[in-house]
Specification:
42% of the residues lie in helices and 14% in strands. By secondary structure, the protein is of the alpha+beta class. Strands 1, 2, 3, 4, 5, 6, 7 and 8 form an eight-stranded mixed beta sheet that branches.
Amino acid sequence: MQHRLLKWFHQNKRDLPWRTNPSWYKTFLSEIILQQTTVAQGLPYYQKFIQQYPDIKSLAKADEQSVLHLWAGLGYYSRARNMLKAARIIYTEHDGVFPQDYKTALALPGIGPYSAAAILSISYNLPHAVIDGNVIRVICRLYAIKEDTREKNTLNRIKKHATKLLDKKAPGDFNEAMMELGATTCTPRQPLCQSCPINRFCIAYKKNLVIKIPYKSKPAKKKKLINLVGVIKNKSQICIMRRPDSGLLAGMWEFPILEIRDWDNLDIHYDRFKSRFELTGQLGIISEEMRQIYSHIDLRFKGIILNTAKKSIHKNDYVDVKWVDFSELKNYAIHNAHKKIIAWLADQ
């Protein structure tokens, strides 16, 4: 099976930029970006980052806001902050080289078992099996594992199989091959079983269970939030605020918000908003409802324009305030939800 899979991989692997003149830094960057992100989504971000920060030194010396600005739109912003923290530790404490010891690698911010195994096997050919969503699906089908993949016992079983299957002579290529197979052939829906190089070893294929495997129980219900988003204007300038350095969307810039229960009594909510930020001013246009889905939050929000004659504003829980021209908004790390507010403003 190892031989057939590796032969298929070498003949069919996608031409990806981190596979050209590979290095541990390219692997590190790509693996962080591709966590919970498809290659199609992550590729343009990888290209931006490798151009802006071509090596560990340039990334370690980067400003957090610059990194967040490049990352904006990719989501899961803690990945960007942890990537920067890890880069600084690698540069200052490990002579600018990713540590080859597994436990040392795990101690780096944002580096979990998956990332450590991927970087160490691909970059240093060390025998650590990678377990990501693609590999989980491939192994579940190979062994016809029907149990819930959210369960710890199921994941432990999968890990044992992955470790046993790993080609110790070429662990990096084998891990990439398993992930590539899951991404391009052993896909969640409409898998290409007929062209799979290892279908002769697949129990789910033999028993016609491929579509039923793997099984993953439904996640917990997302928390529902409603925000009133204030676009506070003073002549040609707009107020933006920076969120705290911890918690949801940490360190990102946004328009000030007020969390509300529903859209009833909008006038009362508007007065609360003005009181919260100690504002005086005239209410302008109100947007249609917009929506942003996060891993654990279902956010609905509306933008309101408030014209004020003074720039004095209470920060509340925010850590910084800036007044900028509309054209300058693109220079700030503003998260995706409020980029929708920017798009709405552009049409006003």
